[in-house]
Each structure stands twice: as structure tokens, then as C-alpha cells.
Design goal:
alpha+beta, about 40% strand, 13 strands, five-stranded antiparallel beta sheet, six-stranded antiparallel beta sheet
């Protein structure tokens, strides 16, 4: 974990509300309008995002597409709820030989490093750009009521919420 702390310090990462550490690296000066969104927002934003193996990115959703790019550490599991209300998993990292994954706008998703004794460093790019007012944390009870239709869904919703 010494390497993880060195990365947090070197990149000047700060705690993120959904878990892990982050730092915004880019916010486009270009402003765009989207009929499904309110007002104008940056065309594109990106962050560094680091999760320790004992932490997770809790279930949340945003109003834009988000692409995750793998950089360092162990593989990362990105969980999302599909149109059939089933939890699906995408894996990114060196072992999986998959280095990016995109979560569509308005999709509930969460993430966790594959190994508890490791960490994962990724970048996340959001377009149209990320705004905290477009960010919604998942409520365990509400997610279970809507998506807890299988034992596996229930297990992952319970494991990846902070309530």
C-alpha cells in the first residue's frame, strides 16, 4: 500500500464522496446544451480516480456517459444495472487485457478493485462534463426494492452501498 499512498500524494488526490480518491484534471471551456439536461455545461471533464482494494465506488448514476481508462494496479470490476434490471460486470486492467469501459448516461453503477491487498488507478472522462448536481448516490433500500430481484443482485447492492 506504500505505492498507493505515494500515488495519492504525487497526484494530489482528495477523498471522493462515493469512495476512493480523485482529482479533476480537465474541464473543457467549451459549453454545450443538451435537451435532456438543464442549462449549459462543459463539453468534457476528466479525473484521476484511485480505489484501494478495501474500498469501492458506491452505487451511483450521473446524467452523462462516463468512460473509465485503466492506468495502474490490479484489475477493476465495474458493476452496472442493465435495461433488464440485472447486475452486469465489466473488468478493466492488465490481467483482463481490457483498458477502457463506458457506462451509459443514467445507468446505476459501482466499482471495486479485484484484489483487496492492492489498488487501482483509472481516469474517468465524462461527456457532457460532470457536474455534482447531476450525481445521484444510490440508496440501498430503494435499489433493493427496484433491482433486488435475484440473490446476486441483492448481494452486490448490499455490498456496494454505504448505508
Amino acid at each position: 500500500m506504500h505505492d498507493m499512498n505515494a500515488i495519492i500524494d504525487a497526484l494530489k488526490l482528495e477523498p471522493h464522496p462515493e469512495g476512493g480518491f480523485y482529482r479533476e484534471m480537465y474541464r473543457s471551456g467549451t459549453r454545450v446544451s443538451d435537451l435532456s439536461l438543464t442549462g449549459k455545461k462543459s463539453a468534457h471533464t476528466s479525473i484521476y480516480y484511485l480505489l484501494s482494494g478495501k474500498d469501492f465506488s458506491a452505487w451511483h448514476r450521473i446524467k452523462s456517459d462516463e468512460t473509465w481508462y485503466f492506468h495502474l494496479g490490479c484489475d477493476l470490476l465495474i458493476y452496472f444495472i442493465d435495461q433488464n434490471k440485472m447486475v452486469r460486470t465489466v473488468r478493466v486492467g492488465l490481467e483482463s487485457k481490457s483498458f477502457q469501459a463506458t457506462v451509459p448516461a443514467n445507468t446505476w453503477f459501482a466499482a471495486k478493485p479485484l484484489k483487496e491487498d492492492a489498488y487501482c488507478l483509472v481516469s474517468c472522462a465524462v461527456a457532457p462534463g460532470f457536474e455534482f448536481e447531476d450525481f445521484e448516490m444510490g440508496n440501498r433500500e430503494a435499489l433493493l426494492k427496484e433491482f433486488g430481484t435475484t440473490a446476486e443482485n441483492t448481494k452486490l447492492i448490499e455490498a456496494l452501498t454505504r448505508e
